[in-house]
């Protein structure tokens, strides 16, 4: 099983009640990090991925959590992030919690294996509805009953709202997950476009991005911010740079710092996991 671990020497398994833990979980990976709330410093990140580009099932995720020495400890607070491609936004003044399944079905097909959850957004003023695996949701709710799951776009929108005001006319963000990516566009600080696209290869990602640029009349001189499963000089970055003049990586921001062990880590890959502590 592919595995990543970085930890500070001050990490103390007997002091977890002074820590906050954030967990990002889906069938493609499970990652978690620990924030020392006394020093507001991240001191651990650990990530698990399936073998041979396969997927986890719910039982395998449960086994990982059961066997991990930190995932089963008691914490000051626990945050859950669930990346899934199926979501929709409902303006807050129109939202009725009793009709969330109905709202969701306007854009997506409902299945019995899914449960529809919602998160409140402040910018844009809306509710984010998303479908996640019912067995996985029940597993995480049983293990962490006090932690209501966030869709991965909740921390991303919260972060964007803090930085887009100084970005000029447009703020454009591409967040890449396994098998899908999100394209978010703000124009003059107002949400212009937000959608998730499934992809099989880099050409698919480029096709969707450039077509949205063309339909919106966005010039290639604008800046695109990248996060998620991409890195400098990989195929996505290199090919996107052929068409878009400014391609940058967006890293998590907040009132926290990072242990020196994170210095050589591409923090943009874990942007939602690391910035979810900003969410109310």
Count, helices: 7
What is the C-alpha radius of gyration, as a whole number of Å?
A: 19 Å
Just name the CATH architecture of the domain at 156-249: 2-Layer Sandwich
- Mean pLDDT, to the nearest integer, reads 95
CATH topology of the domain at 156-249: Nucleotidyltransferase, domain 5
Helix content: 10-25%
Task: Give descriptors for this structure.
280 residues; alpha/beta; Nucleotidyltransferase, domain 5; seven-stranded mixed β-sheet; five-stranded mixed β-sheet; 7 helices; 15 strands
Notes on the structure:
With 280 residues, the chain is an alpha/beta fold. The protein has a domain at 156-249: Nucleotidyltransferase, domain 5. Helices cover 24% and strands 34% of the residues. The protein is built from seven helices and 15 strands. The protein has helices at residues 58-67, 100-105, 134-143, 153-163, 202-216, 235-243, 271-275, and strands at residues 3-7, 19-26, 29-36, 41-48, 77-82, 87-91, 114-121, 126-133, 150-151, 170-177, 180-187, 190-198, 223-228, 246-249, 257-258. Strands 1, 2, 3, 4, 5, 9 and 15 form a seven-stranded mixed beta sheet that branches. A five-stranded mixed beta sheet has the order 12-11-10-13-14, with helices on one face. Helix 5 runs parallel beside helix 6 (235-243). It is globular, with a radius of gyration of 19 Å. The mean pLDDT is 95.
